[in-house]
Each structure stands twice: as C-alpha cells, then as structure tokens.
Write a structure and sequence with these properties.
This protein is α/β, with parallel strands linked by helices. β10 and β11 form a beta hairpin.
Length: 205
C-alpha cells in the first residue's frame, strides 16, 4: 500500500490518480463533508457526503480513521477512510494526522506499506494556490496550517520527493519504480537458499 502525504498543492491527489490509471494501483477514495471544487466528481476525487451521513457512518465504526480541517469561512470539513477499502496494492492520500494513526494501526508487512512525502516549498505552494483560485485569506491559512501540521513529518515517511519542478506524471513514475525496486528486494530476501552437497561437506549459498 502506498500512502501519499503532502502539503496543500503538492500534487498528491493528482499523483494518486495517475498511479491508479496508468500503473494499476487501486485508488482508495476517502469520504468528505467539504463541497466539491469545480471539476471534481463524486466517487472520483472523494465520496462527497453530508455531515449527518458522515456522523452516522462514524457512529457505526465504518471508518478506519477520520480527521477534520477548519477553513477561513469558519466551517469545519471532515474526512474519513473506510475500513473495507484498505488492502495491498492500493494508493491513498492522507494528512499527517491520518498518517500517524495508520502507522500505529496498519501491519506494514501485511500491506507492504510505503509512505511518500511529496514536499513543496512555500513559494511554489502560494503560486499554485493562487492559480487554483483560492482567496488570499484561505491561501494564507492553509500555508500556515501546513507549517504546523508537517512540523515533525520527517519522523513518519519512508521517502521524500520534491514536487516543485516535477510534473505529477514524473512523480508517479518515480514512485512506481521505487515500489517495484522494493518488491524485487523483498522477493530476493525471501528466496529459499539453495543447498549444494558434496562427498564430505555441504555449503549454504
């Protein structure tokens, strides 16, 4: 399982979609109470649900983990990952809070868990937020919130990739190559050693 974590506008959701569409990883789609942005579709970027529906699912222990964001308008948006969606060969986008919960609860061997931090420098982040159409108050709030949320992120990821000057396609290709390398390494480690027997001795090679 690939967990992607990154600051706002680091490209994590786009990279997750490319890993799904181009490289065959299953896309774990989380649930949210926030309204969809222009161009977003229900069941593609997120499962968009009402706060009442979210609270009902949470009370039924439907979610593996949940988190929330407060936005400049004063609203709070909730996010959750369903338990049934978790499996190997999948990719999911999480925030630092969800990542910390996942590391404590998921068996890394069962899910072949690898965590990629998609880093973006502040100047590039501001530019992408403006290009996306976020207002100045929300832009400043998100950048400042990221500074706090990602303060200790280096303690939780396996690999960090700078997305400042890389396209989402390049990032997805790099992640896929790294995952394939990891799989090959694990296969070689798990291979049974061959025994060679001689007349009076044997060796383990």
């Amino acid at each position: 399982m690939i967990i992607l974590v990154g600051k706002t506008c680091s490209g994590k959701s786009t990279v997750a979609n490319i890993l799904h569409e181009k490289y065959g990883y299953s896309r774990i789609i989380t649930y949210t109470t926030r309204p969809p942005r222009d161009g977003e579709q229900d069941g593609v970027e997120y499962h968009f649900i009402s706060l009442e529906e979210f609270e009902r699912l949470k009370s039924e222990e439907f979610f593996f983990e949940t988190t929330s964001y407060s936005v400049a308008t004063g609203e709070t948006w909730y996010y959750g990952t369903s338990k049934e969606s978790l499996h190997d060969n999948a990719v999911i986008v999480m925030n630092p809070d969800g990542l910390k919960k996942a590391k404590n609860l998921l068996d890394p061997d069962k899910y072949h868990l690898k965590i990629f931090y998609l880093n973006i420098r502040e100047g590039y982040q501001y530019n992408r937020l403006r290009q996306r159409g976020d207002n100045s108050d929300e832009t400043s709030r998100r950048v400042e919130a990221d500074k706090k949320d990602f303060a200790d992120i280096e303690n939780y990821y396996d690999y960090a990739i700078s997305t400042d000057l890389m396209t989402p396609d390049d990032v997805a290709e790099l992640i896929d190559k790294m995952m394939r390398f990891e799989e090959k390494e694990e296969e070689e480690e798990n291979e049974e050693p061959e025994l060679y027997y001689g007349v009076s001795c044997w060796c383990l090679c």
